[in-house]
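Hypothesis: this fold can be encoded by more than one sequence.
Test: take the structure tokens below, design a sequence, compare later.
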């Protein structure tokens, strides 16, 4: 039971820490999402969300701002 508990809680704990970093603005992170179960699916989705946020932030940075000269 202890091994199973650790296999489930460790990835969830890692994802919670990653979400905390994203909340602080760190988009240069990812979580280990190896495996073929619901926990790894959640990790893959989190990594995809972080990548999407990173790309969105990059696009915003490249957009001309009002008042900027061309």
């Amino acid at each position: 039971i202890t091994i199973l508990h650790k296999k489930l809680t460790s990835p969830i704990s890692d994802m919670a820490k990653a979400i905390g970093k994203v909340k602080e603005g760190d988009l240069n992170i990812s979580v280990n999402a190896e495996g073929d179960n619901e926990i790894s699916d959640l990790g893959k989705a989190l990594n995809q969300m972080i990548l999407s946020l990173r790309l969105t932030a990059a696009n915003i940075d490249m957009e001309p701002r009002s008042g900027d000269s061309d």
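The helical segments are 2-23, 38-62. The first helix runs from residue 2 to 23.
Hypothesis status: open.
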